Amino acid sequence: MPVNLPPLGKLERVPGFRWGSSEAEIRYTGRTDLAVMACVEGTVVGGVYTKNRFTAAPVLVCKEHKGPLRGVVVNSGNANAATGQRGLDDAGESCRLLASQLGCKPDEVLPFSTGVIGEFLPMEQVAQGIEKAVSELSDDGWEAAAQAIMTTDTQPKGFSHSFEVQGKRVTTTGIVKGAGMIRPDMATMLAFQATDACMSEPVANQLVQDLTARSFNRLTVDGDTSTNDSYIVAASGLANHSVITETNSDSYRELLDGMSVVARKLAEFTVRDAEGATKFVTITVKGGRTEEECLAVAFTIAHSPLVKTALFAGDPNWGRFCMAIGRSAIDDLNPDLVSLWLDEVQIAKNGLVADSYVETDAAEVMAKDEFEVIADLGRGRATAQVLTSDFSYEYVKINAEYRT
Fold it and tell me: Would you identify the CATH topology of the domain 17-272?
């Protein structure tokens, strides 16, 4: 069950973008599993993609198709990864199929896939699905698209936000899928965020990097980086403000802050919907010399199977947190300076159990479905946060039975 994940509400239309979905029966029956997005001419796009060396074919094609953007095609149920030249050909053919429907060039289309690795796409079904999805294109198609891109997600996830740039109203909406195989190292499984803001292509490329650093690169479910991780930000340029061409401007800061609201929500929802999750946990590491070393410690804690199983059990075995902190990539860490809290309950001070510590207080915190683990390294002023979940019996069951 997801951890306090709100139901998908009404997602705002974004001028210049339409979504359509269809039942292509690529792996699933009785539900939509293919979606297409159509964009107005002049749409710019920025993307970040997986660093996994077993990169999926659609990701490789996306890296070649750098814009302008006229369309997106995404399927669930089949990752089109570890599929060699045939996989590349199929991803390219998906672009050609949608391009012929939209009246644009194939390299103005980006393909995305998610699902089982090592199987070929059933292209006849993909072709039929694209044609049907195009016939369903609508500027109100965001909710249906969020449903179509799901795999082991328990529910569709998306968020909208309106803000001002140069005193003018700007809208952004994003959808995300992802529940397992999540340790992005750039983004989550698949995320699509659109806006009507006006910006140059270089600004769009920097914006997606800055948004990722604030959101998707601050979460982990199980430490695994998918072959298909992708996050794109597309801008139609239909808002009534002047084009943003500089990233050191006040307009860019307004843009980044407004877009970050959605990116952070999508990242949060991904962790709340983690496979088998019963706990939503914020790991805060402070007192580091740099933000980078704080992040390294936070991710080490969040990735530890022993920590994650203790989170599931609600067991305040604080030695597991110490173990994880100690094996992080800080060679000169002084354990005698480290302190530890669960919410407001201090467990350790200067490397030893705190005089005020009562285990029942810590157990009460860990019995909650949301709480914070705070570690103070006692060596500086930097801080960083990571969002994570626990490992439950259900997580093992979901992944053991993923193909059955």
Answer: L-amino peptidase D-ALA esterase/amidase (3.60.70)
